[in-house]
Amino acid sequence: MAFYFEKAMLEKYKSVGYNRNMKRKKYIDNSKMSIASKSLINKLSRKFRRRGGVIINDESSIVYLDSRNAEAITLDAYTILMREKISISALIEELEHSEQYLRNENDGSRLDVVKNEILAKEKSLRYADRYKLPKIEIEFVKKDIELYKKIYRRLTEDESNKNS
What we know:
Layout: H1 2-15, H2 38-50, E1 54-56, H3 59-68, E2 72-76, E3 79-82, H4 88-102, H5 110-126, H6 135-163
Parallel strand pairs: 1-3
Antiparallel strand pairs: 2-3
Helix pairs in contact: 2-4, 4-5, 5-6
């Protein structure tokens, strides 16, 4: 039963072109990144799962993640597509994205998506010491934040130019 639900959810988001315009980061050598253990995934996702959230990592979701060049993608407040091997920072970010959806902080606009990427990445940095993230991962997240801040500034400038 769960497989059919998961497949239907995945098809729904493929059909609407979920985050079609968002560019994903380049290939990352995961051997240099932290890898979240199953127990850590269970610990960090407990609240998410208690409210009915599902983490999907079946074959079709992996194919979709490959097509988006992503470790994981949060589809809504209750659905995360995720690889079995995921960095701790990415896990924290995706769980934060589900919270953002739950708080109605993401209307799907590019501006909201970029703003929420920044906030989720900043949250993962706040937990860097607790989960002993390697320096290279911390630097990678910091570079991502700077990139997203540039995109955010460009998008807000474009919006203000449209309104003037």
